Structure formats: C-alpha cells, structure tokens
Amino acid sequence: MKDTHYQILSALTLLAALTSSCPAQTAAPVELRILAINDFHGNLRPPPGGIRIADPDDNTKKIVVPAGGAEHMATLVAQLRQRHNNNIFVAAGDLIGASPFLSAMFHDEPTIESLSMMGLALSSVGNHEFDEGKDELRRMQNGGCHPTDKCQGPHPFAGAKFHYLAAGTIDKGTGKTLFPAYEVREFEGIPVAFIGLTLKATPNIISPPSAAGLAFRDEAETVNALVPELRGRGVEAIVVLIHEGGTPTGDYNECPGISGAIVDIVKKFDKAVDVVVSGHTHQAYVCEIDGRLVTSGDKYGTLVTAIDLKLDPVTRDVISAKADNTIVRTTTLAKDAGQTALLDSYDRFAAPLANRPAGSVTETLSRTPNQAGESVLGDIIADAQLAATSSGSSGGAVIAFTNPGGVRIDILKKDDGAVSYADLFASQPFRNQLVTLTLSGRQIKDLLEQQWLDPKRPRILQVSKGFAYAWDGTRPDGDRIVAGRMSLNGQPIDPAASYRVTVNNYLAVGGDGFTVLKEATAQQFGIYDIDALDAYFRSNSPVGPTAGNRIVRIN
Asked: Are residues 465 and 333 in the same domain?
C-alpha cells in the first residue's frame, strides 16, 4: 500500500510539473456583429438624392451614389449577416415620421412591417417617433387600426416585431419609461445590454400636444444611472442606441473634426459604455470619442453600419470594436423579393393618388437655404399657404410663415418637368393643418426674434411674397431683427397694427419654440399644407424659383 501510494503521488507531481511548463489555454473571444441604421424616415423606395460621398478618384470633389430603399437594404442586411453566427440588427431612431407618401399615407405601417421583415431587433425612439403622440407610437409597437383612418392597407396592422427602447422618456402618468430602457441579449452565454433613448431636447422639436404627458431626461445621466443595475445583472458589454449626433468634416467612414451634441454626451458617459450608435443629424461617420466607438449611418436608408465586436469570455466585456459604413447601392444589390411583394401590396392602394399629376416645374426647387436662411422651396410653400388662406372666407391672411423643418426634400425636375402628388407630398409629409390668426406688428417682430432661441441651430421661418425683413447676426438675442426693415408690400410693419398671419398647426401651438404664436387671437383653421401646395401647383404650373431676397442678412 505504501509503494502504491508513493507511485500515485509521484504521478501527480509529474503531471503538475508538466502542466506548469505548458502555456495556459485561453478561450477564444466571442465575435458579435451589430448591424445598425438610423433616420430611415419611411424611405421604402430609394431617396432621390442617394448619398453624397468623396470622389474615389479625387477626394476634393463629391459624387452622388444612387442608394437606399427597403428592397436593396434587405439584401445587404442579409449579406452582412452571412458567416456571422452572432449578429443583431438595431436602429437609433426616426425610423418613421417625415416619410414619403407610400409610408405616410398608411401612418408608417408599411415601414414598421418592412423593417420587421428584415429582422430588426431593437430601436431607440427618435423625436419623429412622437410626431403623432405617444398613443400612436404605442400602436406602432403593438399593432391595431388607426383610431381615425381605421385600417387602410392590404391587411391588418400587426405592429412591430422589433422592440422600441426609451430609457429617457418618462410617462408622467405612470412614472415609468414609455418603453423598456434597455434589453439584454446573450451571445454564446455573454450578455450584452442595448440601451435606447432619444435626445432630451425632443419636447422643443415636436408639437406641444405630442409631448404632453411625457418627460425627456438628460441623455448621459439616464445612461449612467442604468450602469449599476446592468452590472448587478452581470452585464459588462454595453451598447447605447441614441437619437442624437454630430457633424464631421470627412467622408462616410471617417471622423475628422466632429462637433455637436454627441461629443459632450459621450464624454459624460460612464466608462462602462463601450459602443454608441447615434443619429438625428443625418450624417455618416465612424469615430472614436473618449475611447469609445461612435457611429452614424447617414439618413433615408442609404447606409448600413456593420459593427464588429470581440467579447472576452472571461470578463464578458468588449475587447475590441470596429465599424464600417456600407452603402446600400441600388446598382449592384438585388431587390429582396419579400420586400418587393410588401411594397407592391401597399402600392396598389396608394398608386391612384400618388401618381396623379399635380403640375410641373421649370427646374429643381431646392430646400437648401442661402446665407440669410431663405430657400427656393420654402418661398413657394409659404406662397401656397398664403394663396390658400388669403380670401376673406378662408382666413384673410396677408402673410404666411412656415417652419424650415417641415420642408423635407427638394422637388426635383425630371426629364419632362412633370410633378406628381407623391412628389409634393415628399416635400411636405407631415399633413399639418393651416391656421390663420391675428398678430400685432410687435408680435411679428417678437416671433421672428424667436428664430434664434437655439443660437447653434437657428430656425429661420420661410415667408410669403410681399413680406420682407432684415436681420443682423452680430446683434444680441432678442434684437436681431431690424425693425425698420420689416415690410409688407413695400409698407413698413406697424407695431401697433393687426395682421392676419397663416402658419401650420404645429407652429400655432408653439412648435419649434415659437411661443409668441400661442398669444395670437381669432384662430381660423383651414386646409392641410399638402393640399394647399397641390392646389398652388395645379393653378400656377409650371412653377419656378421666385425672385427671393425676402430675407436679408446685413452683416
């Protein structure tokens, strides 16, 4: 027995020596591919402008690449998933709202269905998710017919198969987040948390009725408060999907000189946050900010961001992260048959109205503002709204103002110059009702001063023909408008006189911070903005650029 015991001990000693002389075996990292989009805005068909990128042959120049559309995006998403067993498709908000006709006519139900079919798993809410209020957003998640327009599409609306996340949005009635703050997914046993939220300034850029009953909390404070809870659940890998962004100076896979809100927000995030998928600014970038990977995928479905993570199976944290923005090229990517069938089914319902001729243009009507803030298309839309409300029975308006954020896309000149109803709708997709109200000359000046409530992002109202004013950017807040340069049909605006002014219902309730309009009197509601634009085109085609110079910047 003693000899046997000695032999066993010797064998164990030898085994221990051999083991200690060999290098330790470490488990291979777990690889995870995250596919991400942002600011899709219901662009089920490729957007007319494609994507502007640096010319590969001369990076001092820009070229336009045809890109986007749900049919091509679905194909690219499927390709980017190949050979990546661990993958998830996510989004950073504004999937719906300000959408082209095909989606907007059905209250964005087709977009929710399309992205669900692609396998989208999670999305943060964006400010445009709230365009029709929290109850309508809940319907987007849960399904059911629209409360007013009922079921209009080819089949009942079942709601999103993906999950909305709203860490920073509190329902004041319950004190809880409108949707879950985060979701944890496991990949080969490693938990990864996805926190989703929109920008805290959302109440300032949606209509007050849409923001009613909701509170929007600080982005960094919201995320940081969740970190201890996630770590308590054993989560070390954290990805933030945030509908806020920045503006870089480089190409779509670069990040030189990035500025904007996202920079400060990321710097305030707890170091536990590993990756940030951003949006809102309609920019494309792949950045490192404060040691974290930060991405954004342009707008309107022109890019899909592929983010590749390596996860440590021991610490369960992110070892490395890299990303690549891939263009949804319409010239090389095949159309997904399932998406084509879905869009065709909605097209059959929408086509009779969408394809109706509306008029024609002499050249492309651009929404891009000049240095004073005035745009060609903004002038025409304001003129259309004035024309729709100038008669005594329709409001007696003498001036019309419209918000620049409501002018969404250029009206392009095609070969024959013809413009369809869908073309007009794409430029004015919110279907806001016109409101004519009475303001004093003093209130008109105060209204125009409110264009600079956010000096970093002025909101220059577009104005109708006959009205003109000048502003001086070197003057202090509240005194930028040159009072003596405000005129109507060549006559100075009298501070004490009353004027009938047309705006949309979004502005009338103080949208975009134009609270002076809530002081107006004698409101009279009129037709919808898109119907005013349609009537204007039918009466005035071919429509071309106006003389401009309604707004003058004098510094």
From this structure: no
